[in-house]
Amino acid sequence: MPSKADEEARHIYDKKVGSFIENTPSTIRYADVPWPCDGTAEDMVAVMLSGEEEQNVIRKRIKELALFWHPDKFFLRFGDNLSSQDRELITDAVLDISKQISAFWKGNDSEMQCT
């Protein structure tokens, strides 16, 4: 069962993403991107998935996250707005998160297919 802190972190993350999409800055700096938390990409994926227990809900959530954080999709949507100073840092972080989402999916795919 997820902790109250995990659920709150997830709620805050979801609100940040919604706000970012609705009000994308004309110049996106690293601090503007709705990172789920400080820490590793693995920590970030844990926050993004916190509060989910049912496999079908987890599967849907992973698909949503994969679409938002997929490098091609992310850069098509926001690439023109990325700050030249922060572009490399943002690119590296987006790639790390995308890889971690893929790893989570692959690591849990057989379990999800059994339910």
TrEMBL record:
Entry's Gene Ontology cellular component terms: nucleus
Predominant cellular place of this UniProt entry's protein: nucleus
GO biological process, one term: negative regulation of canonical NF-kappaB signal transduction
Entry keyword Phosphoprotein: yes
Entry keyword set: ANK repeat, Nucleus, Phosphoprotein, Repeat
UniProt keyword annotation of Nucleus present: yes
Domain of life: Eukaryota
Compartments it resides in: Nucleus
InterPro entries: NFKBIL1
Name of the protein: Nuclear factor of kappa light polypeptide protein enhancer in B-cells inhibitor-like 1
Species, as recorded: Desmophyllum pertusum
Source lineage: Eukaryota, Metazoa, Cnidaria, Anthozoa, Hexacorallia
Gene: NFKBIL1_5
